[in-house]
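Q: You know discrete backbone vocabularies at least as well as I do. I have my own habits and do not want them to colour yours. No explanation is needed for now; the record alone will do.
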Amino acid sequence: MGDNTLLVVDVGSSALKAVLFGARGQMIASAARPIATRSTAEGLHEQDPDDWWSALRAAVGQLADSHSISAIAFSGSMQNLIALRSDGSPTGPAVLYSDRRLEGSEIDRLGARLPADYAQRTGNRLDPAHTILKLMARQRFAPHAANQPVLWTFGAKDALTFRLTGNAVIDATTASTTGLMNFAQRSWDADLLAVAGVDEIALPRIQPADTVVGHVTPAAAGQTGLPVGIPVFNGSGDAGAATWGASADTPGMAYCYLGTTGWVATTLDHAQAAPPRDTYSLADAMRPDRVIIISPFLTAGSALDWLARTTGRPIEQLLDDTALASPGAALFLPYLGGERAPFEDSQVRGALLGLSHTSGAGELALAVMEGVAFAVRHNLEAAGLPRTTLTVIGGAARHAQQRQILADALGRDIAIPGDSETMTATGVLRMVAASAGITLCPVAPATVIKPRAERAACHEQRYAAYLAASSFARQLSHSLA
């Protein structure tokens, strides 16, 4: 027991990250490998599940201590449509949660086939991202799966655990994003499966995060370098894992995740949450009596990535440039790929307003980060989340300037935990530690960043302009579509 280690693998939107934890929960080593996404102007967003497998193999190969791994657990992106053969290989690309090819008329047509009490069954009102819609239209989204037996799964992690063990399992957090799970019962809903035209036998079993899915098979061990026979824990979809990583798995605390995309969230008792709500409700991956209230937005760290590509300046240089800038005329709307919350609009697009001949890289970078911060605030307010110190995690808040600008634009204290970029892995660690024989040490206190009064006052005035500009952009987008 004293030498136990746990490898947590997070299959994110842009990278696979592997973190090896020791017997007391300390981080021993980590590795990361990029994951490519295929996108088109028509809203297609796909990844190759074989790339996830290759990234896992490469990440394990980077770890000098891979031979010492005692167990492995997973997190990853949710709300995907993935078709797998019996050996775990994909029949074709995975359609991502961010895919926006379904148009309003198609959503209405498919939605009309669903039971009238769909929202009560699933805990969420119908959303274009619900995987049931893509499953109902699978002749368009997964023609490669036709005329052969397939396993349908919905989390990137679940494709990997199936390939490692031969067993198909999913967590309740991921399952609750599909539109196929009865939220109260935490089981697949027979009526919804009938509408989608799938049998329950073709779906993974819904199990808690600390369930052992199976053990690494000799074939999988040979391909990945993982020790043969080690237990594979179910883990949780990324939002559930991040909630536990931010220690927001008990009611009364809000947090924000900033990665390629982002979200704000809190945890409520099921009776208080009373789903369905205007915001997303996710089942906690461990506790049947807890609900994660989450408001997801589509553009976070990807906004600064876009500016870096457009200007030809590295992100670190752009961040340094903001130290010499103050909030000016430039105002950024971060709707580069539409929006999910606090409003659903696949047509709206981003904008930079208030530009002049003197607008420089520093002012634009500051405007972009302010715009993302305003999206955070907009979601916090729309979801009615508690106005406490906001815990912020994720790689898009790694730089001191990003953190300070976020605090200024929000006008509130933010708390940055140590190793905030690995909080998703830390969340899975917290979920499975007891079952994996890991004894967790107390965590160091978070770093609290306070807003600068003068800057906060300036951002407060500009926030009203942001809301007005967002409303206008939504009206304009339909004319430009």
User: Anything to note?
Assistant: The first strand starts at residue 6 and ends at 11. The CA atoms of residues 415 and 448 lie 4 Å apart. The chain is about 35% helix and 20% strand. The first helix runs from residue 49 to 62.
